[in-house]
Amino acid sequence: MYACAHEYCTDWEIDAGIEWANETCVEYAMIAIPAYETEAVKFTNAFMKNLTVVGYADALMGAIMNTSVMISRDYYEQSLKTDVSDKFP
Fold first, then answer.
1. What are phi and psi of 54, to 5 degrees?
2. How far is residue 58's CA from residue 19's CA, in Å, rounded to a whole number?
3. C-alpha torsion 62→82→11→31, nearest 10
4. CA 73, CA 55: separation in Å to the nearest integer?
5. CA–CA–CA angle 56, 58, 60 (5° rounding)
6. First CA to last CA across the chain, in angstroms?
7. Same domain as 35, residue 65
8. Where in the sequence is the domain holding 32, given as residue range(s)?
9. pLDDT in tens, the chain (89 residues)
């Protein structure tokens, strides 16, 4: 989540998304997620280049990943369109 936010989102989107995710985690799991700033220090060029990129087709196959992954830009944009279209008729 953090690496994708780092790659695709504005600062405002990151703040809003992390706030929403944190509220959800606290409500349902009673645990807060780490602050974005704590995680962002890891996102060196080498780290980002070494992430496995996962697309929509990979998600449909139900692949289980045992490592951090980066969703593809196309997958991110499709997910964003789906989320936005749910809010506006």
1. -115, 130
2. 28
3. -50
4. 8
5. 70
6. 27
7. no
8. 1-42
9. 899 999 999 999 999 989 999 999 999 999 999 999 999 898 999 999 999 898 887 777 777 778 888 889 988 888 777 655 455 44
